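Chapter review: from sequence to fold.
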Amino acid sequence: MSQESGVLENIKMSKPGDKPKQPEFHLLPKIINGSIAGIVGVSVVFPIDLVKTRLQNQTIGPKGEKQYSSMLDCFKKTYHAEGYFGMYRGSGVNILLITPEKAIKLAANDLFRFYLTRPDGTLPIVNQMLAGGLAGACQIVITTPMELLKIQMQDAGRVAAQAKAEGRKIERLTATALTKRLLAERGILGLYRGVTATAARDVSFSVIYFPLFAILNDMGVKDGQAPPFWWSFLSGCAAGSTAALSVNPMDVVKTRMQTLSKGSGEKQYNSIMDCVT
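The token string follows.
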């Protein structure tokens, strides 16, 4: 049941003279739901995320040559070179930090939606977008260091394969060793490399995703009953795909700016505009 329909139901059940019962916000269930959703999501789609990172980081050579010709080609080469578990390189960092990241994101969105809802129970689209954007801004505290460490682990195989083809060897760091090195060299700010690009991606994503999901999901409400699981699932897929496609250019910029170990011919970037250019 949507928040609006819940408020109307409370009004209908109220006796004459009674004040309408105000909707309540419970934080703990939101955090638990977000944590479970995050872990399940990472476990299912992580190999695709690894391929995405490697495709985003590869650069086209002077003669148009590419290390990976397609998503399927990247899957095949990664599996052949690193095996099944190589597809989950860096997943430990994600599983560890995805719980607070998703919990903050989903709980913050619900919290902001709760406080931005009008007294009559309605939530204008502008307020929905604002709630989503604020939730995206809250999550970058966890997302930025998580993405920074995850990207290094995911892209290590691509850089190592490129170095091997050139007769070179590179050292592979664990997430723990990399964290210690960054803290020793740059302090806590070393873990927040690319924070501006991360914020631009996550805020934009949440501004699109959360309102779109709420609108699509509410279309499945019948006779005051919550929509069935399959409807919510398809609503999430549609909203997530639309939001991800919309912010993909900024995601490419974020990935390239956060990559520390570059392959041959790949450059470091000074700013978002430098990377875009």
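Two observations follow directly from the output. DSSP finds nine helices and no strands in the chain. The two ends are 47 Å apart (CA to CA).
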